[in-house]
Amino acid sequence: KELGKNRCVRFDASMNQAMVRRQAIEQALRAELEGGHGLALHYQPLFSARDNALVGAEALLRWTHAELGNVSPLEAISVAEDCGLIVPLGYWVLRTACRDASRWQGRHAHPLRVAVNISARQLGDPQFLEQVMDILRAEKLPADLLEIELTETVLMENMEAGAYTLHRLSQLGIHLAIDDFGTGYSSLAYLRQLPMRRLKIDRSFVRDLPAQEHSRKIVTAIVALAHGLELEVTAEGVETLEQAEYLVEQGCDVLQGYAFARPMPVQQFVELQASH
Ligand code: C2E
Ligand code: CA
Ligand code: CA
Ligand code: CA
């Protein structure tokens, strides 16, 4: 009984600690969005598997805070989703990414698309469509240079209300991609019903290539499925040249990963364009 009681107390203490951290993150995030300077986007270059050409970049959230240190995007997004700050944070990300992408056009031989991650409550926001249109107009970014990445979970949670928004976004010329494909509720219904342009093979299927047969079979199947539906395929988390070679052989269209480049500040991304 004594022990049980102790364990219970310890459990409460760690629960409490987690809650205190989430509250601290919420407060700090609120302050950032009201005019702080700790939020930033890094850009991870995307390369064509066909000819190694640079084709764009994925925008990834970075946050350094005086007391909290570096807060990972997964933790920041999770807190923001719970407390509703995801909506203003999401618009900050979208606006910053479109602004940066608009500025980096014209420096490269061909246009470079920017990919932005969107979470469930953002897609569910009734203002989402209008806000995206406003941002593209204000930042002067052509719609077809914006790609929106949605996970299977985000799609499942917004199946009805989200479908209209996604069709409108697609009609405007915005590209839609399914992120982390194969890790969520893999309902093939949305592949048929929604105007998707790309599947991104999750890092977990790339990690054990080319040695692991199971991963090889999944990658082959995803590429066949995607190409059968006239979707492009991106492989993420490509860390070795061996993996890259295998993915090119399998017919992947775009490669992303540490083997090529890590996420970097926008200035560095602009410098990288000059050498590609
Ligand atoms: P994600 O969308 O799947 O993004 C890819 C993640 O894999 C990034 O982690 C990237 O840095 C990492 N990565 C890229 N190449 C490699 C590689 O070769 N090896 C390994 N081990 N990792 C690689 P990051 O930046 O920590 O972001 C984590 C997740 O946080 C993202 O996963 C995405 O789900 C979420 N996220 C990041 N920024 C945003 C944002 O602005 N909005 C939303 N809603 N989510 C975001
Ligand atoms: Ca992503
Ligand atoms: Ca991903
Ligand atoms: Ca992922």
Automatic annotation (TrEMBL):
Coiled coil: none annotated. One of its GO terms (biological process) is cellular response to nitric oxide. The keyword Ribosomal protein does not apply. One of its GO terms (molecular function) is cyclic-guanylate-specific phosphodiesterase activity. The keyword Magnesium does not apply. Residues 22-276 form the EAL domain. Keywords: Membrane, Transmembrane, Transmembrane helix. This is Diguanylate cyclase.
